[in-house]
Amino acid sequence: MRVSIAGAGLGGLALAQGLRGAGIEADVYERDPAITARFQGYRLVLNQAGFEAVRGCLPPRWHPLLDAIVGDAYGERLILDPRLNTIGELGPGRTGTVVDRHVLRHLLLTGLTVRTGAALTGYEVLADGKVDARFSHGEPVTADLLVGADGVASAVRATLSPRTVPTDTGVRFVIGRTTLTERFAGLSKAFGSKIAGDGVSLLLGAMRFRTPPKEAAEELAPEVSLPDVRDYVRWAMILPSDGSLGASSPQEAALSRMDGWHPDLRALIEQSDPDNSTLLSIRVVEPRERWAPGPVTLLGDAVHATSPTGGNGANTALRDADLLRRSLIEAAEGRRNLLDAVGDYERQMFAYGAEAVRHSLDALPAYVPKS
Ligand SMILES: Cc1cc2nc3c(=O)[nH]c(=O)nc-3n(C[C@H](O)[C@H](O)[C@H](O)COP(=O)(O)OP(=O)(O)OC[C@H]3O[C@@H](n4cnc5c(N)ncnc54)[C@H](O)[C@@H]3O)c2cc1C
């Protein structure tokens, strides 16, 4: 069996690792010109199911490394004013495992064949039931299954399910990260809390690696090369819904809305890493229209993109990867046919994917500043 995967995000790479571990040929095609071509380094909280899913896709010999490069989710879940006085509570929080997306992606990339600069533009189902994937450059590639793991603006989805389109929630936020110094460790009350300013909300989260990733890889799995990332604070400011940054950089956009804020909060933004700061918009994709199982399917944000306030997009993408991996292994071993395996995956994925999107949208209003 040969599987083509469009998209080298968390879901596509986890699936490729899981298939490779089972001896199934899986090639990944990524639109970006290079793996590190743009901002990717934010922190994610994985719940137990998401963490078990990524573990299941990785070879067991890398499990000690995975355990070493994560951290524990920690959050006070308070509502604070800009001087850090407590003014309320956010309600029950999330516990789980904190990972850096960039670091996890590097682990997932190890040993895979990934063609970068390969934007999928379309596909054609062939008479023999296989599928040809077409790319902006180069020849089409034939496979038994094409998996669209190509994110919220999925090109695979545009053909497979053209009526499933992203919805823009209108919410914009700037996000960045700052090295975790002793001064910023003192902001622990704000980690996992919401700082409610005038028309904006600031959210902070700490990424504390149990072992620095590069050192952990050198010690535990020398064949893996991980980036040299140190502990940091991830900050995200949700903006008023006028749609514009109103400043030349994400930091300036945040600082321009922080007059009179606690000096440690201002310093946190001032000292952030400009290469890891960006403006993002929150778009969701709700899985609605089922299609007849065939040699093309979808996974992750391509079929159920959530609002980051739900904290479940990566968890759900990884759950997809693990579920599809297990279904495809059964097909490769002759225990069921390929279309039944894909159909069974899609039936389960549609149910929990739709629930994940609903949950994330329910969680959004608590973070959006009142205008
Ligand atoms: C700030 C932020 C915080 C978040 N926090 C959390 C959290 O705490 N917990 C959680 O569970 N989730 C979180 N999420 C959500 C999570 O990051 C995503 O849901 C997850 O990365 C989706 O994985 P994916 O593989 O489906 O898609 P992506 O990671 O988006 O990957 C898609 C890939 O496909 C590539 N691509 C796109 N088009 C094409 C094409 N035509 N051809 C080839 N390649 C293509 C893209 O370049 C990209 O590399 C957060 C998201 C953000 C933005």
Radius of gyration using CA atoms only: 21 Å
Number of helices, where a helix is a run of at least 4 consecutive DSSP H or I residues:
12
Ligand inventory reads: flavin-adenine dinucleotide
Task: Give the low-pLDDT segments.
Answer: none
Please provide the ordered H/E string of secondary-structure elements. EHEEHHEEEEHEEEEEHEHEEHEHHEEHHH
What is the helix content?
25-40%
Distance between the termini: 54 Å
Report the CATH architecture. Answer: 3-Layer(bba) Sandwich
- Enter the CATH topology name: FAD/NAD(P)-binding domain
Could you say how many structural domains there are in total?
A: 1
- What is the arithmetic mean of pLDDT? 93
CATH class annotation: Alpha Beta
Class inferred from helices and paired strands: alpha/beta
Strand order across the biggest sheet?
Answer: 6-5-14-15-16-13-17
**Full CATH superfamily name:** FAD/NAD(P)-binding domain
Largest sheet: 7 strands, mixed
What proportion strand?
15-25%
Question: What is the molecular shape?
Answer: globular
* Strand segment tally: 18
Walk me through the structure.
The chain has a single domain, classed as FAD/NAD(P)-binding domain, CATH 3.50.50.60. Strands 6-5-14-15-16-13-17 form a 7-stranded mixed β-sheet. A 5-stranded parallel β-sheet has the order 8-2-1-12-18. It is an alpha/beta fold and 371 residues long. The longest helix is centred in the last third of the chain and has 26 residues, at 338-363. The radius of gyration is 21 Å and the shape is globular. The chain has 12 helices and 18 strands. The mean pLDDT is 93. α2 runs parallel beside α11 and α11 (313-332) packs antiparallel against α12. Helices cover 32% and strands 23% of the residues. It binds flavin-adenine dinucleotide (FAD). Flavin-adenine dinucleotide (FAD) binds next to α1, β3, α10 and α11. The site of flavin-adenine dinucleotide has 32 residues, from α1, β3, α10 and α11. GO terms for molecular function: FAD binding; monooxygenase activity. It comes from Amycolatopsis alba DSM 44262. Pfam families: FAD_binding_3 (PF01494). This is FAD-dependent monooxygenase. Residues 289-341 form the FAD-binding domain.
